[in-house]
Amino acid sequence: MTLIALSEKFLFSIAAILFTVGFLFNYFQIKSKGTYSHTLTYLFLLFGFVLQSIALYLRALVIHACPLGNTFEILQFILWSLILLFLLIRPVIRINALGLFIIFIASLVSAISLLIPSLDNPYVYTLEANNPFIELHASLAIFSYAIYMLLAIVSSMLLIQQWGLKKQRFQGLFSHLPAVQKLDSIANVLVWIASLTLFIGILFGSFYWNEHPETVPLFKLLLTTLILILYCVVGVLKYFNKITPQKQAIAYIFLFILAILSLGTVQAENPQEPNQAEILESPMIK
Q1: 71, 130, 148, 236: most buried by Cβ count inside 10 Å?
Q2: Please, what's the b/e burial string for 91-113 (b: 16 or more CB within 10 A of its CB; e: otherwise)?
Q3: Using CA atoms, how far apart are residues 277 and 93, in angstroms rounded to an integer?
Q4: What is the pTM (predicted TM-score) of this model?
Q5: Where are the domains of the chain?
Q6: Residue 279 phi/psi, 5° resolution?
Q7: Among candidates 79, 57, 68, 72, which has minimal Cα distance to 130?
Q8: Mean of the pLDDT values across residues 87-102?
Q9: Count of CA atoms in the C-beta half-sphere (13 A) of 19
Q10: How crowded is the C-beta side of 60, counted as CA atoms within 13 Å?
Q11: Whose CA is closest to 234, among 200, 274, 184?
């Protein structure tokens, strides 16, 4: 393992620790005082984000491309994009308790990706992946998954708030959650932003696939397109009031879980055979 590989793993680990400490601090604050610090949550996420950014940059230096070659890198990039979204929208659009949910997801995803070594398996990297259309496709697709993750978080908040209202829970976490109507409106917007981003990503990827269809498994294209269609179907059904906000929220959570699970399937379908001299190794190979 190279010095750079050790450095980026260390930075990923410190970022995970920051996220976990931030979440635990908020958890005990809510449990004991019924409130938590929005500013500290923002700072924990900000410093963790900076460390993540440096770690991803170090890995990108090694492979000379956007680090999206295995499940570990994809999860870290989705998480990085999610936190970036939060840091950008938080000063403009105030969504109560969103930071608390995001720092919980950040600590959970970071821990899972770091504690399962097989997620960061060495992979064969070909110069084909350095094509600008492929890199743009991959970046947009992963960013859309980050928006879908944000959508799943908002949907979870909606379900928790609905449950709290039904059980007449108005203390602790429930007192910080936005109104169900506001969460529903946000979800209705996020699904189309994410779907448009994913559609554009697929479009850019198709420019390369049309000329080199043998480089991308058909299964990968069909699976990604299916996920996009399913999100759009739920969005259309909600637009025409054919489903309730609760059913919509459950559908979005289920679809995001399906999308994340599909990442492993797509990775398994990717060709892993060397292409003579046009190969670069993952930073974890050595």
Answers
A1: 148
A2: eeeebebbbbbbbbbbbebbeeb
A3: 49
A4: 0.88
A5: 3-281
A6: -135, 135
A7: 68
A8: 87
A9: 27
A10: 15
A11: 184
Tell me which residue has tokens 């906000």. 245
106-145 pLDDT per residue, tens: 999 999 999 999 888 876 655 455 667 677 888 899 999 9
Task: Say if residue 175's pLDDT is above 50.
Answer: yes
